[in-house]
Amino acid sequence: MSNYIVTFKDGVSKDEIQKFKDEVTSEGGEIGHTYDGLISGFSAKIQPQTLQAFQQQASISDSVIETIEPDSTVTIQ
What we know:
By secondary structure, the chain is of the alpha+beta class. It is built from two helices and four strands, in the order E-H-E-E-H-E.
């Protein structure tokens, strides 16, 4: 299981985002932080099969998912 940040397009409801969070946890993943400020989304440990389903969803032109990116440490130097 790897850590990812899933972000959603503007206007996506909290209920819609919750459905994706529920899918993560029902498949054995863990939700980390929820983002509901400048971006809407969440960080999570996501099972490979769930990640694949999210990536397929994100590839559809009218998908509510904006991005799925590996969660990593960012530094400024």
